[in-house]
Design goal:
The protein has a single domain (5-250), classed as ApbE-like domains (T-fold, Roll). It has seven helices and ten strands. The protein has helices spanning 43-64, 72-76, 81-87, 93-105, 126-136, 215-228, 230-240; strands at 5-12, 19-29, 32-39, 144-149, 152-157, 159-163, 170-174, 178-183, 205-211, 245-250. An eight-stranded antiparallel sheet has the order 1-2-3-4-5-8-9-10. Strands 6-7 form a two-stranded antiparallel sheet. Helix 3 (81-87) packs antiparallel against helix 4 (93-105) and helix 4 (93-105) packs parallel to helix 6 (215-228). The radius of gyration is 18 Å and the shape is globular. The relative contact order is 0.13.
């Protein structure tokens, strides 16, 4: 059984100049660190939220794990897209559909089949999808809650302030808002332009996408923006997802 790590973290939120301490419960799943943060309610409600998130992430990982040969994703990879959408578990159908749509909109530069025909990898969008699904199952009426899966953040309720990676900028997320960041400073050149097959070289840049309602789209779009670069990425966002916004960061020296 994976161990839950109990920790505290302080966050500022808009209530005059007041400060409220948030409780954070953290564990590992889907190859990263997950957490639920909550404040203003009782601990039981927070632990119920953790239970809902843990169960959701476990189920999504079971279905969509590209590294598990027995996962649904790998069993369905040999089929055409339309057949996958028909055969897949209904709970994760939106994740497949969103990935296929982003591939079509980007002309194949974002592609869940980037490893080749008969393969699937939803790693660029599945964590955000899992966050959305978990938030749907968490009751928003008790206190304020934020879900975090490897930096894919979504506010179930309340008002949360978070730093934009590698900058001094802050974001405020309120109920339903989500954000995700794509960068290479933690894992190296792991983001690929699927059309060319080459890793994207933007080692001193990152992009954070903020979406009013979808962690899944924030996750996928941050990857798309990173692949396309700032100018083309901003044009893509204006044309296809004007409800979202991107924050570009440049750190250290210009490459």
């Amino acid at each position: 059984m994976r161990r839950i790590v109990f920790a505290f973290a302080a966050f500022m939120f808009s209530l005059g100049c007041s400060e409220q301490r948030a409780e954070r419960l953290e564990w590992t799943t889907m190859g990263t660190v997950a957490a639920v943060q909550f404040k203003g309610g009782d601990s039981d409600a927070g632990r119920e939220a953790v239970g809902a998130a843990r169960e959701t992430f476990r189920e999504v990982e079971k279905l969509l794990n590209a590294h598990d040969p027995d996962s649904e994703l790998n069993r369905l990879a040999k089929f055409p897209d339309e057949e996958i959408l028909r055969r897949c578990d209904p709970e994760v159908r939106d994740c497949y559909a969103a990935a296929f749509r982003l591939r079509d909109l980007t002309g194949g530069r974002f592609d869940p089949r980037w490893r080749g025909p008969g393969t699937l990898d939803l790693g660029a969008i599945a964590k955000g999808f899992a966050v959305d699904l978990a938030c749907e199952k968490i009751y928003a009426g008790k206190g304020e809650t934020l879900v975090d899966l490897g930096g894919n953040l979504k506010a179930v309720s309340g008002r949360w302030r978070t730093l934009v990676a590698k900058t001094a900028q802050t974001l405020v997320l309120t109920g339903g808002m989500a954000c995700a960041t794509s960068a290479e400073y933690f894992r190296g050149s792991h983001i690929r332009d699927a059309k060319s097959g080459a890793p994207v070289k933007r080692s001193r840049h990152s992009v954070t996408v903020v979406h009013p309602s979808s962690a899944m789209l924030a996750d996928g779009l941050s990857t798309v923006m990173f692949i396309l670069g700032r100018e083309r990425g901003e044009d893509f966002l204006r044309r296809f997802h004007p409800e979202a916004r991107a924050i570009w960061s440049q750190h250290d020296e210009t490459p």
